[in-house]
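Ticket 4471: requesting a sanity check on a complex prediction with adenosine-5'-diphosphate. Repro inputs:
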Amino acid sequence: MSEPVLSVAGLTRAFSQGGETIEVLRGVDLHVGAGEIVALLGPSGSGKSTLLQAVGLLEGGFGGSIRIAGEQVAKLDSDGRTRVRRDSLGFVYQFHHLLPDFNATENVVLPQLIRDRTHAEANARATALLSALGLGHRLTHRPSQLSGGEQQRVAVARALANQPALVLADEPTGNLDEATADVVLAEFLRLVRGEGSAALVATHNERMALKMDRVVRLHEGRLA
Ligand code: ADP
Ligand code: MG
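Returned structure tokens:
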């Protein structure tokens, strides 16, 4: 079997709150295989976002080991973290974080321009991804002209723009009504599978989690 896209071992993270130390992650071990879609399930406050921020190299202060695409990343400097984020990771958040002054296509083109890709190639890929998500008629709309579900679809296309080995999604449909959330999640999963990326998807929703390849549960700082 090929090496996991993500290997986390003994990951710890504590915060001090009002003079007290709370241990949010107490030794998390997790492997995600190439192309595997794993649900990270746990109630609000259980540490899902904290775990994704560690794996996404967005926050420091962690103990333990994180390997992404075969590279030990826990001790990288800020340039190294930026490189891994850019080359291997895609992100989807609960709120879309699209650039408001750019249209849907431009929001998906921009992350590709740091790659060795012409504007025409980036544009073609953005159009293909957005069309695959049913947004072929929304290519030149700005975020404010799109519905919540459409905004999240653009965010999904943006996350996949550079063919990341691993997509990190933090409650990607948490801001949508249930019917829209179901449709957007199904499209997200279909596209991630089609692209061959792996994904780690944080959710507090058991029903959503069961749609993924495997479910891991965060409980008292460890994965069960
Ligand atoms: P989840 O995403 O599962 O809802 P979080 O990872 O956001 O959980 O938070 C887990 C715990 O860590 C919570 O008790 C939260 O208050 C605490 N926490 C998260 N970030 C910080 C921070 N920057 N400073 C202090 N405490 C934090
Ligand atoms: Mg969270």
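Notes from triage: The two ends are 23 Å apart (CA to CA). Leaving this open until the requester confirms.
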